[in-house]
Design a protein that fits this description.
The complex is a heterodimer. Chain A is mostly helical. Chain A is about 70% helix and about 0% strand. Chain A is globular. By secondary structure, chain B is largely without helices or strands. Chain B has no helices and no strands. The radius of gyration of chain B is 7 Å and the shape is elongated. Classes of the chains: A mainly alpha, B little secondary structure. At the A-B interface, α1, α3 and α8 of A face loops of B.
Chain lengths: ~220, ~10
């Protein structure tokens, strides 16, 4: 494991902690897309099926359990917590799951490195992760008043993806025979999805203004 | 695995 990978994972972890803290402290999930959280839950479940079959390291196992547990906690709060669920922007969070899930599923059936249930589901999770942030970005654009923590959450998620690209470059240069084309291409697509957001996030930070995305 | 895909990342 190299520094970029570790920093990437820690940034990912931090993004989730920021979201948990925001929702818990303010008792509000305003501006948070339940659709994106549920897509992440699908991503983590499909990818981490190997928790039961393939032990890589204690670090990997612990992180997988944390990602699963924290995502399901957020979903539980947004759906069932008696105070928090009332603050969910149900009417604005209208992105349709099937527009993302079906193409990713079809693509994973065609483009995979091995046609087995585990491998196809793993590949599906890679493709779905690349686009899972889209409902959140759409909701953000619709919500005029973006609070800082929601903005920081998305910024940290985007940073995690950028650090993973550096991790792949490092691994490519240091590990013989290391290559994973499907992951690389999906990861680059995923990072590109954030570029527009990054632009407005950095601009609002430099100008000391509240973040808002143009419609 | 086939194609050199690694599963050691998160």
């Amino acid at each position: 494991m190299n520094l970029f990978r570790l920093l990437g994972d820690m940034t990912h972890l931090l993004s989730i902690i920021v979201l948990l803290l925001k929702i818990n402290a303010t008792r509000s999930c305003r501006g948070v897309s339940l659709k994106t959280q549920e897509l992440y839950a699908i991503v983590f479940v499909c990818r981490y099926l190997d928790l039961f079959t393939n032990f890589i390291s204690l670090y990997n196992t612990v992180m997988k359990v944390i990602f699963l547990g924290s995502t399901f906690t957020i979903i539980y709060w947004m759906r069932f917590h008696k105070v928090i669920r009332v603050t969910y922007d149900r009417d604005q969070d209208t992105f349709r799951y099937q527009f993302l899930i079906i193409p990713c599923l079809l693509l994973s059936l065609i483009l995979n490195s091995e046609f087995t249930v585990m491998e196809v589901l793993w590949t599906f999770s890679i493709y779905l992760e690349a686009v899972a942030i889209l409902p959140q970005l759409v909701l953000l654009q619709r919500t005029n008043n973006i609070d800082n923590l929601t903005g920081n959450y998305i910024f940290l998620l985007g940073s995690y993806r950028a650090l993973y690209i550096l991790n792949w470059i490092y691994r490519f240069l240091t590990e013989p025979n290391y290559r994973q084309y499907l992951v690389w291409i999906s990861g680059i697509v995923q990072t590109i999805v954030y570029i527009d957001f990054f632009y407005y996030y950095i601009r609002s930070w430099k100008n000391n203004e509240k973040l808002s995305l143009p419609a | 695995t086939a194609g050199g895909e690694h599963h050691d990342e998160l």
